[in-house]
Records
---
Amino acid sequence: MRAAEEIRVPSLPARAPRAATGRTALAVLACLAGLVVLVRLGQPQRLAWAQAAFIIFGSILIQALPFVVIGATTSALIEVLVPLGTLERLARLPRPLRLPAAALAGVAMPICECGSVPVARRLVAKGLPPSAAIAFMLAAPVVNPVVIASTAVAYRGRDVLWLIVGGRFLLGALVAIAVGWTAGAAAPESLLRPSPVGDHEAVELGRPEPRWRRFFLHLGGDFLFMGRYLVLGATLAALVQTFLPASWVSRLASTPVLGIAAMMVLAALLSLCSESDAFVAASFTPFGPAAQLAFLVFGPMVDLKLTALYAGTFRSDLARTIVIAAFAATLVAAMWVQVATG
Amino acid sequence: MTGVARTLARRAERRPSPARLAGAAVLGAWAGLFWWLLASGRDALYLSERTRWVVPVGASLLSLAALGRFATSRTTRPEAIGRREAWIMGAVVAPVVLLASLPPATLGQFSAGTRSSVASAGVLGSREMGSGALTLVDVAAAQTTPEGERALAARAGETVDLVGFVVRYPDTPADELLLTRYVVTCCVADATIAQVRVVNVTPGRFRPNDWVRVVGTIYPIGREVIVDARSVEPVERPDRPYLTP
C-alpha cells in the first residue's frame, strides 16, 4: 500500500475528463494529416521568417527533449528506488542548512534546466520540502560543472573571466536559495498541479505493480506531461528569436538598472540552453559584467519554455512566486555586483 | 490458489488501456523522429557537432520509454483517454509531423540581421592560428581579440579558400557580397555569425542564400576582413552547414 500512498497524493485529477471517442481520434489524425498536406503543398518555408522559425523551433525541441527524457528517467528512478521518508530526513535539517544543501546538490546534476523540473516535481511528491526542491531545481542548471566549464570557455581571455564564472556559481546558488526560501513551507498538495497522465496509473486494484512497470509508467507519464509544455515554450521562444533583433536590447546598455533588467528579459525571451547561453551573453559587450551575470543567472531559472513547464507543474501561485522572486533576487544581486565592481 | 495461478489470473484480468497505448504511440513517434534525424543526417541542420550525441541518446531513451509504455499498456483498470488529452497528445506529436515534412533547410540571410557576430561574441576564443590554410573559423576567431587581429594582419595578402552562403543588403555594392556562416555551440537557437566581405564579385551572378566557394586574397583591415575574389563558384550546401567553435 505504500506505493499507492506515494503516488496518489499529488496526482489524482480533480474530476473525470470527458472520454475521447473514435471520432475524436479521427479528428486528431485528420489534423495531423492536414499539417503534412499544408507543409507539402503550401510550402510555408518559402517565407524566410517561417523557415527561420521552423528551424529554431526544431532545434530547441531536438536539443531539449533528450534532457527532458533524462530528467523523466531520473525522476522515475527516484520514484521506484527511493523509499518514502528518505528525503524527509533532509527535511529535518535546520532550514538555514537545508536550502544551501539543496542548492549545492545541483552540482551533482549536470543537465539542462528542462531536465531539472520533472526531478524537482518528483522530489516534492516524495516528501522533500518544496522550498528545498525549488532551490535544487533552480540552482542545478546554473551551478553544475558542465555549465560552469562552458562559461569559462566563453569568457576565457577576458578580464572578467573569474568575476563571471565565480559570480555565476555564487549568485546562481544564492538566488535559488532566496527563491526557495520565498516559496516557504506549504504542503506539497497545495503546490503541485495534478498530472492528467501517468502517476495514478501505477496501482492496480490496490495492488502495487512490479517495480519495472511502475518505472515505465512514471517515465512515460512525466515525459508526456512535460512534453506538452516544452512544445508550447519552444513555439514562443522560436517566434521571439525569429523576430527580436539582438541589437534592440543593446540600446539600453548604458542605463544602470534598466540594462540589467533588459538582459534578464532578453534571457527569458531567448530561452537558451544553460550550457550555451554564456556564448551569447559574452556577445553583449556594451553591457557590463553585472548585466551579463544577470543574463546568465536568470535565464536558466526563468524563460519561456520553463515558464510553460512551471505553469504545468506547479499551482499558478507558486509558478508566479518563482518567476517574481527569481527576477527580484537576480536584479538585486546583479545591482550589488554592479556597485561592488564599479 | 498458487502464486503462479494468481499471476496468471491477474494477467487474464488485464485489458489494453487506450490512454497508455496513446502515450506509447506519442513516445514512439518522437523516438522515430530522432532515429530518422540520425539516419538521414538531418540532425546537422539543428545541432552543432558538439551536441550531436543528444540525438542517439534521445532516440534510445525514447524508444525504451515507448516500448516500456507499450509493455505496460494492459491493466486491470484500463483508462479511457479524455477528449482534451487526445488533442493535447496530437499537439505533442504535431512537431514530429512538421519536422519530418519540412524539406531540409538552414538559417539564411533573414536571421543574419537578428544575430550577434562571432567577433563580438568571443565564441571562438583565442585560437592558435598557426601557419596552415586560413578558414572562416580562423578569420572569425582572429577578430575576437587584439592579438588575433594582429596575427591575422600578419597574413595579409595570403590566398584563402572559403565556403559560405551569400548575404546581401540593399546597400551592398553590386560587385560585393558578405560571405557568411553560422557558428553554433549547442543548437541553432544560439547561432552567431562569422562573416567576411568579398569584393570583385561578378554583379548579379549570386543571390542571397546561394552557397559559394570563394578563392581570393585576404586583407584584414582593423575589425573588417576583406577578401579580394579571384573566383567565386556556386557549390552545394555542405553536409554540416554550421561551424562548431
---
Amino acid sequence: MKLTTFALGLAAATLLGSSAVQAADAQFIGSTVYRTGPYAPGGIPWADGFADYVNLLSERDGGINGVPLELEECDTAYNTDKGVECYERLKDKGSTGMPAVMPLSTGITYALLDRVKADKIPLLTAGYGRADAADGTVFPYIFNPPATYWGGADVAIQYIASEFGGTENLKGKKIALVYHDSAYGKEPINTLKALAEQHGYKLSLFPVPHPGLEQKSTWLKIGRQLRPDYVIMYGWGVMNATAIKEAAAVNYPRDKFIGIWWTGNEQDVIPAGKAAIGYKALQFNAIGADFPVHQDIIKYLYENGKGSAKSPDIVGQAAYNRGLQQAVIVTEAIRAAMNIYGNAPVTGEQVAHALDSFDLNAERLKALGLEGLMEPIKLSCSDHQGGGHAQVTQWDGKTWQSITDWITPNEEMLRAMYEESAAAYAKEQGITPRSCD
Amino acid sequence: MFYREAGQFKTSYQADQAIFPIRQDLYAYIAFLAVAFIGVPLLASDYFLSTLMLPFLVLALAAIGLNILTGYAGQLSLGTGGFMATGAFAAYKLSTAFPDMHLIIVFLLSGLITAGVGIFFGIPSLRIKGFYLAVATLASQFFLIWMFNKFGWFTNYSASGVISAPPRTVFGDFYITGPQAAPVTKYLFCLSFVVLLALLAKNLTRSNIGRKWMAIRDMDIAAEIIGIPMLKTKLIAFAVSSFYCGIAGAFWAFLYTGSVEPLAFDVNRSFQVLFMIIIGGLGSIMGSFLGAAFMVLLPIFLTNAPHMVGVEISVSTLSHLEAMVFGVLIIFFLIVEPHGLARLWQIFKEKMRLWPFPH
C-alpha cells in the first residue's frame, strides 16, 4: 500500500520536473483535435485532413518558405476542460510557441477567449465559435474565416428563398429551426429572427437537448402539426442522423430539410441509410478528392505510407476537406507572417499581425492546387471574417453533390449585427475597441 | 519513529478537541500550507498553476460541498452541476449588474443565492430517501441547466448563451479575472478562499450541526427520536452544500475558464464530483481534496506520461489508454479500500505510529 502511494507521488514529481525537448529551428504547429470521445466519428477525418496538409508541406516543400514544420496533436475528446489543458500544454512549445490555435469546439473557443488575448496567440475558428468575433476592433486575436453561424443562417434563407422563386415569396411561409440546445445551436436564432422580420416568414424553434437521441416528439410536432415549408438544422454528432431518421419516420420530405456544415458529414448521413437521400447541407468547402492538392496528398503521403487516415478513402470527405482547409488558412497565415518577419519560426503575435492583412486570393489558391475547393479569403484589421461564402450540397446516397454555386451572405446586414453584438461584449468586458485606421 | 505522540499531554478540553490532536500533524499541515502559498507560486509554471491547480482547487471545493451533503448528512445528490451553474450565473449577473461590487462580495452573494436554490430543491429530501432522492436532485440538475439555457435574462441576452467574466481586481492592480489576470494571482486568491472554506467546513462537521448531520446519515429514525429536527437539519445541509458548490461554480466560470456555457455544468460534472467524493472518501474533508486530485490530476498525468519517458504513441491511442488505465485505477483503489483514499491515508498514519517496531 505504502509502495503504491509512494510510486504515485514519485510519478507526480516526475511530471512536474520534465519538459519536452524540441528542435530549435522548426516552426511548431499545435493542433487540438478530437480523435476520441462521443464526437470522434466527425473529428477523426477533420484531424486527418489537417495533419495530411501540414505533412504534405513538409514532404513536398520541406516546410513553409524552407522552415521545417513540427506538428503536434493533442486530443480534447471535445471536452472543454481537456481542451484548455491542451492549449496550455502546447502554447509554449517549439522555439516560438504556438503560432495559432484552432480549438475545433465552440465550448473550448469560449474558454480560450481571454487566454489567447493574454498570450497573444491568434484563435482561428473555421465555421464555429463566436460569430461577432468578425469585428476585429473588439477581438484583435480572434479570426473566423471562412464562415460564421450567422452567415450560414443567412445563406440557408437565401437558398430557401430561391427554392420558392425569390425572397418576396417567403412571406407567410413556415420555417422551423431544429437546434442543439447549446451555445452552438443558439447562434443562428437572432439572425433567423431578423430575417423573419425582413421577409415575413414564420420561424418556429425546436431545441433538442444534448445529446439528441430523443427527437420523437419534436418531429411529430414538425411532421404532423406544424408542417413547415422548410426545416433548418443546427445539429451535432449523433443528433443529426437521429433527426434525419425521425424526419423520414414522420414522412417529412428530406429535400425540404437543410443543415449547417456540421450536419453535413458523411458520418451524419450514412447511419441514416436510405432515409438520408435528398437531405441537404451547407458546406464552406467543396467535397471530393478531385483537386490537385488531393493528388499530391495521395502521391507524397499515402503511397509512401505516411498518410494520417487509416485508408485513403477518407481523403476528400466533407470533414476531411474542412480540416485541410483549416490547415491551408493556418499555414498560409504563417507564410504571410514569414514574408513580413523573415523566414524563421514566427510567434503568435506575428501571425496575428499577418492575419490582419491576410489575402488568400484566387491566384494563390490555384497555385496551391485548391481552386474550387474553397473561396478566396481577404481579412482586414476590422474584418476578421472575410467572405462567408457557402454552397448547398445534397446527399444522393453515396456522395454529397453540390447543387448551387457559392452563395455570399448579406454582409451589410450581418456586419451591423456583428458590430452590435461585439459592442455589447466590449461594454460588458470594459474593452476599448482598437482603432483600425 | 518520528510519528509518536509520546510526551504530548493534553491539559485542556480545547487541546483535546483540536483538529490536529497530534503535534506532527499540525506541523505537517503548516508546512503543507507554506508550500502551497509560497513554494508553489514561486516554483510552478503557468501551465501548472492554471491548468492543474485551479481546476483541482475549484473541484475540491465542489467536492467539499457535496461531501457535506452526501458524506456527512447522507443525502445522495446528483444536482452538483446545477448548483455550480447557479453560482456561476449568479456571479455573472451580480458582477455585470453592479460593476462596482467587489468580487469577493460577488462570490459570497452568489454562494448565498445558490444556498437559497439548494434549500428549495432540498425540500423533497424530507420525504424521499436514498436513490429516490438522487433522482429528485437529478431533476434539479436538468431544470437549472434548462432554465439558464432558456431565459436570455441570465446571460444578458447573449446570442449563444455564453457568459464571460468581466475583468475585476481583488485590490490595487491585481486582476483575478479577465485577460490581464496572472495565473499566480488567480491561484493565490482561489487557494485562500478554498483553505478558509475548507477550515470552516471541517469545523462545521465537528460542531453540533455536524453531529446532527451524521446522526441523520447513520439512522434518520433514531435521530428523529432523540429530537433532531429533520427538516431544519437536512435543509441546512442542503444550504451549506449548495453554498460551497455555488462558489465553486462561480470560481470555475470566473477564475478557471473565464467564460462558460451552461453545458459546462451538465450532468457529467455532477457525476465527476460524486466520483471524487466516492474515491476520496465519503464524510471526509481531506478525502474531498484527495478525490479531486485523483480525478483532475491523474488523467492529465496519464496523457503526459508516455511522452515524458520518450514513448511516442498516437494521440487517439493515448486517449483511449488514459481512459482504460484511469478506469483500472478506480477499480483498484475501490477494491483495496472501499472507503476511499482518505481511509487509506488514515491506515497509513496508524501504521506510521508503530513504525518501525510494530510490536
